[in-house]
Amino acid sequence: MRLKTNKGFTLIELLVVVAIIGLLATMVAVSLTSARSRARDSRRVSDIRQIENALELYFAAFQEYPTNWTILLQGGQGYLNLRNIPVDPSGISYCYAYGQDPAGSNKILYYHIGARLENANSDFLNQDLDASSTADVSGIVNWTASTDPGVSACPNTTDGFDGSESVAPIYDRGVMP
């Protein structure tokens, strides 16, 4: 008498393998999504630092900061070595506000620049300024928002540019009074 041997997999075994592959695919997709948001945050921080360097070069040449970013590109002066002002990778506006000398010289001696990050626990937030450019800083500086396209007004506390990350994670830099 011969025993019949079945070669192949049972339905249960196939379902277990498919479930494991599905679980692994889901885990990979989730990790890629977080990696992409971290990459966008890195790009934002890089853009802010690059603009900050260009602002400092502009200040060295004119002893004041510009009222908008487009000045950094004009005339081929090379303050910002790009054809266009950096744009946020997912449409979240950068901010730029400037403040005049309180001594009355009308020179722009202060600025606040920032970007809203996607990750509230980003390490970049430990390296930023956490400054406030709300409408008035202790009666010293009245801030004015840049009118550049794609740039939001830093003074708006609902955007989180109020000196804290209470509303949104904000990476900000600048020269403050």
Task: Explain what the structure shows.
This protein has 177 residues and is α+β, with helices and mostly antiparallel strands. 29% of the residues lie in helices and 18% in strands. It contains one helix and six strands; from the N terminus they run H-E-E-E-E-E-E. It has one helix at 11-62; strands spanning 94-100, 108-116, 136-137, 141-145, 151-152, 170-175. Strands 1, 2, 3, 4, 5 and 6 form a six-stranded mixed β-sheet that branches. The chain is elongated, with a radius of gyration of 25 Å.
Task: Describe this protein with a few key phrases.
six-stranded mixed β-sheet; 1 helix; single chain; 177 residues; 29% helix; alpha+beta; 18% strand
Secondary-structure map:
Blueprint: H1 11-62, E1 94-100, E2 108-116, E3 136-137, E4 141-145, E5 151-152, E6 170-175
Parallel strand pairs: 1-5
Antiparallel strand pairs: 1-2, 1-4, 2-6, 3-4
Q: Unreliable runs, pLDDT <50, ≥5 residues?
A: none
What's the β-strand tally? 6
DSSP helix fraction: 25-40%
- What general outline do the C-alpha atoms trace? elongated
Please identify the structural class as seen in this structure: alpha+beta
Spatial separation of the terminal alpha carbons: 97 Å
